[in-house]
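Task 17 of the worksheet. Students: predict the tertiary structure of the chain below and write it out as structure tokens. Keep your answer in the requested format; marks are given for formatting as well as content.
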Amino acid sequence: MHASNEHTFLDIPTREGKPRSSGLTHVMDKGLNLREIEGLFDTAGEYVDIVKLGWGTSYVTNNLEKKVALYRSFATPVVCGGTLFEAVYAQDKLDEFKRWLEHFRFSHVEISDGTIEIPRERKLELIADFAADFVVLSEVGSKDAEVNIAPYLWVQWMREELDAGAWKVIAEGREGGTAGIYRPTGELRTGLVDEIEHSLSFHDLIWEAPTKSSQAWFVRHFGPEVNLGNIPPDEVIALETLRLGLRADTLKEVLLGRSRVEHAPAS
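Model answer:
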């Protein structure tokens, strides 16, 4: 599925319609108002698969109930940022958090430990517990750019979290692409990505890719059906053109079937 314009004539990849099972675009909402959300879905709604209300913004958002309801009216699930979950965990407010999620009719929840240290077994227990009532997205990777987790641990933790009940596992990259799967310079840790790629199904993963260069690299590497996260709202259509080979960065690989380009992006 692509643009609803009847006058189409290019041979471009066929995109599955919503709800998609792959090729997900996970959008970062840092404080959009209701009119901005309506504008986003007027122009790019068919390409938005899930929306994250960044870090703890949902907790201080006016008209949150209306905002979540508006996204739901567009058949698009909403999830709070994992940092809010970490604040909840740090203050031992898990039961209150569940009631809060239910009150505002969140169907999805993100469970992360990128800032607060959560023992592995406890994190897996929390994923299993929340998965009984919500669709869980877990996140692996540190938000501290100085923390370097061995690739085999990324793979092990991702697999454990999927087994515990996570729907998708997010590979940490932060809002600016400077931590987790990225070096502080913004360069992608391609060896880490390769290790993960060879061990897990890419359909189970969402790669945080907030910059055009990182999005293009992932599309060239995995193809149009790669799941990408932390996409700015005003970059949704631009990302779709990367998926379809309608931008110079991916035209040769997507439309002409050339070999994959392996150069890692820099900031």
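Marker's comment: The chain has a mean pLDDT of 93. The chain has one domain: 25-255.
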